[in-house]
Amino acid sequence: MTDKDPRELQFEESPARPRGIASDIARRGDITRRGLIGAGLGVAASAVPTGRAFSAAETESDSNLPPAVPQWQKEPGAPILTPPYGLPSPHEATVVRRPRAGAKPPTDLATYSLTPLQDLHGVITPNGLHYERHHAGVPDIDPEQHRLIIHGLVDRPMIFTMEDLTRFPSVSRFHFLECSGNSSPNWTAPKPELTVQDIHGLLSCAEWTGVPLATVLAEAGVRPEAKWMLAEGADSAAMTRSIPIEKALDDALLAYSQNGERLRPEQGYPLRLFLPGWEGNTSVKWLRRLKLGAAPFETREETSKYTMVMPDHTIRQFNFVMEAKSVITFPSSGHRLAAPGFCEISGLAWSGAGKVVRVEVSTDDGRSWREAALQEPIMTKCLTRFRAPWRWDGGEAVLASRVTDSSGYVQPSREALLKVRDVRSYYHNNAIQSWRVASSGAVTNAG
Amino acid sequence: MTDKDPRELQFEESPARPRGIASDIARRGDITRRGLIGAGLGVAASAVPTGRAFSAAETESDSNLPPAVPQWQKEPGAPILTPPYGLPSPHEATVVRRPRAGAKPPTDLATYSLTPLQDLHGVITPNGLHYERHHAGVPDIDPEQHRLIIHGLVDRPMIFTMEDLTRFPSVSRFHFLECSGNSSPNWTAPKPELTVQDIHGLLSCAEWTGVPLATVLAEAGVRPEAKWMLAEGADSAAMTRSIPIEKALDDALLAYSQNGERLRPEQGYPLRLFLPGWEGNTSVKWLRRLKLGAAPFETREETSKYTMVMPDHTIRQFNFVMEAKSVITFPSSGHRLAAPGFCEISGLAWSGAGKVVRVEVSTDDGRSWREAALQEPIMTKCLTRFRAPWRWDGGEAVLASRVTDSSGYVQPSREALLKVRDVRSYYHNNAIQSWRVASSGAVTNAG
After folding, report:
1. Which residues contact A370 (CB under 8 A, 6 or more apart)?
2. Are A161 and A270 in contact (CB under 8 A)?
3. How crowded is the C-beta side of B344, counted as CA atoms within 13 Å?
4. Which chain B residue shows the shortest CA-CA distance from A49?
5. Which residue of chain A is at minimal alpha-carbon distance from B301?
6. pLDDT more than 90, % of chain B
7. What is the mean pLDDT of each run of 10 residues along chain A (447 residues)?
8. Is there a contact between A161 and A406 (Cβ–Cβ < 8 Å)?
């Protein structure tokens, strides 16, 4: 069926033709219809990109088909199994983790890298692009030698090998993970050139598999007076947090797998505590020790760090739950709209308190809002992809999104957040994100 | 909180202690309870691995905790961002794609590689481990130069750039992909040493994002007399299949993303047709041409190949839907059970006809069956992870699973399949898979 006599052809130029597009969107079973109704997207209002038409006369014979048969169809491709563990196309070499533009992490070891949200689709983050946050670099742990210790206020202190832990009954769950410092650039210095990766890239999502922590704690026997649990990592920072026993016995996992395979080294290989919906640092990586106690352990990471400044300048500890947030990832800062017409606004919404139930988008700087379509399945404490059709008229526009979660909480404005915390309190910034679209099509951060 | 005076300690040896385990399994909200009830898993019957207890006296002080502080906690770890696209731990170097053990593909270019299902958890396949099947190697396609042509029985032949296509409204869906030749080794030569990777590794699962094909076809305008669609790949085999128009207008996607990032080269970068639930070769990779016609196009891949031999020795073309199948991935051939006691049986079930509604497991070579727990969310035409607790008594055992899908179809035995197709018809082998556990704990393929 290969074309035998390729030649370049001239194409008819034709205006974009929206025929059928609105009805096709509306009947997609996996997108709720209300988003489209809210959008008022009639056929006439839509200017969908349609490629170019070409003359029917040119298609009478397969051998005359435009475009020319490409070079890669004329010669054999590359053999497979090189490498046996695959990598992305070299054409996608810019889709990588990186530090924040213009920022300098404290050291090479106490640092972070950001997920390129502006280039991703759906909700899964490939493991190679999962954001990183380390306090003393990435230890190289031999899984055969790794141990988990459970002690303190338990009936029977215990020690486990990885083989012990993987023999327990397991569960798999899709959850986001977000650093409590995510989105802080917009709190402290919302520069126009910052991208969604720069601002919100301390956010990723995966299918996590592990043992329910409650199952393993039951083996040790939690004493009634145990109210808190110390979790310690095997990195040289001995990253350590105090966790209320209620969370430990609720949905906490001892996770050893992400997106099907064993944890990546930078995600805690071979074992991490995973606390769905809670700030990332509590999901202690390279987990080696759990100690049950009657009170919080007041570690460095809950006294000096990861605390919040209140409006009266007191300090609030233990800000565990990541509040509901949403962000438009396309179009976003650094993108450029090629031409006026149809544009699908797409983004991510999530809540540490449960499920996303509604996302609204605005294209007029918050003066009006309409409901976006939510991609199913909507899972608890997981990213949800939202989409809303938009017709860009070529003028200036300011785009924003706001999420409502299953607890009824609505994502606030920055002004609303400033009434409940001090301006120096940059953790947990879940304020509404706005992007400015210039008449040139260039998109920048509007804070 | 780092231990300051580490020293090796002696541990008390203790028998496995099942306390709490059954109730903990049963109250996991995301696993249905019926599997556990079916298992008859009482506390007394379970012998769960529990690690080892150690003396409470040794835990009075953090500085005395066993085991010794490991070397990797005493020195800084590796800096991050090397590489900016991450890779698995070197300790997981055996978890890779590879050809079938003992088999030799026809050429380096017309070949395949298999997903290591025995090492994976959950349902997502990391992109680096997604199985491959190529007819002429992997072309290196410049996405800027790639075009999709739609012609034939349409109102207006059209040509699209990748930018045209990604501007269309998109959807994201979790779906399995399976080669129609998957599982054929058990049909033709079920050797005991074959692993689940060897036998069933032409199976993977991802979150796919793309444009509903119906949306794009509506732009070209499908004529009423169009009943079939030819899909052609831009590889040098010009891999070509005929697709009924009903499927093209149902849930077919023009996919450009898998698990969040752009398609991998070996999965059709930059564009593939994706037909949920249908045999993998119909999801044509490197898609460059769709031609609408009144009848099937009778390509090589639907005459010489991918056809089925019936019991009367006639040939059946167009065997599109991948029938319901399930397979236990742990324990499976090549695994070795360390000791008698608790063992979580875990596996994958799927159906091209819809959702998995039930999986039953047998540990006595099919004499009795009990229901496994299904991991939620259960998605259509997607892998579903099932699990069933088992107490291995140290004797010989034969493990098997069988799935029922939402159409009511039940996975058949090999004997049942042989009544409806010829023994030479090795495609679409969805017979029940059995694994033999020897008293040594060694597991082998039982066909």
Report:
1. A35, A38, A39, A40, A360, A361, A362, A388
2. no
3. 25
4. B164
5. A1
6. 77
7. 28 29 33 32 41 63 62 84 86 94 81 96 98 94 95 95 95 98 95 98 98 96 98 95 98 98 97 98 97 96 92 94 98 96 96 98 98 98 98 97 98 96 94 98 97
8. no
Q: Which CATH architecture has domain B18-63+320-447?
A: Sandwich (2.60)
The 10s digit of each residue's pLDDT in A152-161 is 999 999 999 9
Same fold, A127-306 and A325-445: no
Hey, what are B62's tokens?
A: 């953090």
Token code pair at residue B37: 């009830």
The ranges assigned to domains in chain B are 18-63+320-447, 127-306
Inter-chain CB proximity B149 and A17 less than 8 Å: no
**Rounded Cα–Cα distance for residues B88 and A283 (Å):** 20
B chain contacts of residue A236, beta-carbon cutoff 8 Å: 72-77
Tell me which amino acid residue B205 is.
Answer: C
Residue A180 phi/psi, 5-degree rounding, is -65, -20
Residue B207 has pLDDT above 90, yes or no: yes
Q: Which CATH number fits domain A325-445: 1.10.10.920, 2.60.40.650, 2.60.120.200, 3.40.50.300?
A: 2.60.40.650
Q: Could you give the dihedral angle defined by the CA atoms of residues A76, A77, A78 and A81, in that order, rounded to the nearest 10 degrees?
A: -110
Among the partner residues B30, B208, B270, nearest to A171 by beta-carbon distance: B30
Q: What is the pTM of this model?
A: 0.90
ipTM of this predicted structure: 0.89
Q: Which fold has domain A127-306?
A: Sulfite Oxidase; Chain A, domain 2 (3.90.420)
Q: How many CB atoms lie within 10 A of CB A219?
A: 26
The H or E element containing residue A22 is helix A21-26
Contacts of A142 in chain B (CB under 8 A): 91
Q: Checking DSSP bridges between strand B373-374 and strand B370-371, what pairing results, if any? A: unpaired
